[in-house]
Amino acid sequence: MPAITVKDVLVLPRLPQLDPATTRYRPVTRLVTAPSGYEGEGFPVRRAFAGVPMRELDPFIHLDQMGEVDYAPGEPKGTSWHPHRGFETVTYIIDGIFDHQDSNGGGGTITNGDTQWMTAGGGLLHIEAPPEHLVMSGGLFHGLQLWVNLPRVAKMSPPRYQDIRGKESILLTTPDGGALVRVIAGDIAGHRGPGSTHTPITISHVTVQPGAQVDLPWRTDFNALVYVLGGRGTVGTDRRPVHTGQLAVHGPGDAIRFTADEHQDGRTPELDVYIMGGEPIREPVAHYGPFVMNTREELIQAFEDYQAGRLGVIPATRVPHTGGQAPRP
């Protein structure tokens, strides 16, 4: 998992040493294993939030781990042009290359450690696809796509696109240098990531060396979700075992604890986790296909607007379609 890294984590700013006497570590309230499946024409995904009630995910809606898969030549797949309204997509690439284009003029290519942050707002069309040279050559692909809800007042806001390079992420380490913390959005211990958000959230990718422990300060008004991208370890002060493809939902408190097992396998030599937290919106959610609204009537309106062409027009110059279908929850 290359993402973005450094040769020597000891040169990085360090997280504070937490006082166990005063720190309220968050308990693990739910542990689920993401079911594996295939999207479109054979794109492998893990549905990380499957089986978790929406109230425990709020303000998040959906999370797919895409891959990890080593494609043969001709195998890489993308999506067709498809609409979105009412939320944001956050696409984080760990290995591989992905192109994005939308009908609002946003777009670009992301690779190891980069993030594309698309605010659909009132609506647009977009496409995601591997570049043609990757389709021809094949290669390793691994990433995540997170859907972040928008509050009612922002659901019809103008669309926006953010291209966040991996090198822009804020890099931190633990007091003993046993982990690399990448802050993509939000704030951890006073260190703010580059992502600009409508909904107050924090997103981080943490790589933990075998045997190392991380005590991560976390806002008390945020929920806390820890998804295991790769490796084995434990979560919580009661050291509940976790492995690749599992999500740990945490209860209240002001810090998260997780530890990497001493012995990892050769394929995943470290523990990698993707951590999400945000201020719950606490509004009704009407979610169907590519739209996330507050009411059924708003969903119907979204479909009508899409069919009438009000969500945008496919640009004349566009990313070539490489197979697959629009992602759907």
UniProtKB/TrEMBL annotation:
Superkingdom, natural source: Bacteria
Describe the location of the Pirin N-terminal domain by residue ranges.
44-148
Instruction: Tell me the Pfam families matching this sequence.
Output: Pirin, Pirin_C
Any idea where the Pirin C-terminal domain is? 205-311
The family classification in the record reads: Belongs to the pirin family.
Q: What is this protein called?
A: Pirin family protein
**Organism from which the protein derives:** Micromonospora sonneratiae
Highest classification ranks of the organism: Bacteria, Bacillati, Actinomycetota, Actinomycetes, Micromonosporales
